[in-house]
Amino acid sequence: MPRTRTAARSTADDKRLAHQIGDRIREARKRAGLTQQQLAGDRYTKAYVSALETGIARPSMVALRYLAERLSLAPSHFLDEQNPAWSRLAVDMTLAAGDWQAAADGYLRLLEGAPDEQGRAEILRGRAEALVRLDNGREAVPAAAEAARLFGAYGRVADEALARYWLAYGLYLSDQEADAQSLLTSLLERVRAGLKVDPDFEMRLLMALAAVASRTGDYARSLTFLETARGLVESLDDRRRAMFLFNLAISYQETGDTEAAIRTGTQGLALFRSAGTTFESAQIENTLALAYLATGNTDRAVELASEARAEFERAGDDRFLSAVLDTEAQIALARGQHQEAASLAHRAIDLARSSGNRAMELTAMLTEARALRSTGDNPGAELRYAEAADLARGGHSAGRTREVLREWAALRAEAGDHRGAYELTNEALSVN
User: Rounded to whole angstroms, how far apart are CA atoms 315 and 14?
Assistant: First the structure.
């Protein structure tokens, strides 16, 4: 399913806190003797800094870290950790910045503070989203289900619908496709009957249904959902259209239509570049690199991955840098450069681990294990598969866990350890 981002719910408290953050940014900027343009540097604009300082916009954690570094301050300077509301805003921004593990942990701490029921519902929904993005469907399902129940009890139907979207996603990750499809279909019917959620919510539902249909092998139905979603894109601004095309490209890739993924991803990349959003462009470049790799065009894959890597290094974003390093490792593996692949994947693991990107840590572990296996280093591959299996058992989807166990079993079978291979195969069959 496409991992689209949910807009944070706007409340009076959020607006008040955004104004307080803006005041602190402005005060620190003036003390440093910087203009708004100077503080923006080459990553943001004067208009964006102005919007932050007046409380019109709320900074992501990535933006806050960048501005804090330019002001020689810690990001925590702008957040009052003694105030529970500040902590909630900080966790929301961590989620928006893509630091899923930190967000999941932060929401769990907030739950320990015994919030009121509506506050609990909001925290649970945020935690459900963070867990989904970590591929932890098993823990996301109860969090999203309780959030939906609480929102429903207070008549907050739009918030309930968003919670049910993440519930469906958690069910999908738990290999409960029929339940996920039923829930998504019900939400789609409610939206078409007049339920107002987010402007792009109907498209997200269609793309999610496409992913479920693809998982069950119904590719014709999946493509029908995708084309229906495409018909709604003209109502969006350029940035939202670009993000939609990005997620659509991922969905096409999941259905096996690599050519459509490349075509759609290229369209999204052009929109992002025209809007000057280089960071988002780099995300699409990495996705396109994987699509070109799937077609065997490793030269183009190398070019795109290199461009994405340069942007992530410039931005200092280790989470996304770990992803593009794994992409480069996969390209190297496809080219027969096994040692280079193992080295890149090892670096990707380190960065993913240090930045809390557990999903990418698992992906990179598998890449390194495959590279080591290709070099004939079976003991090294054995160790990596063992680590990957432990990580997968700790909360990743059942399908991902089975993938690790089956590859590990194949390695043991090749090494003549048929008993070990049998045990791993049995475990893979029992995962649910």
Answer: 27
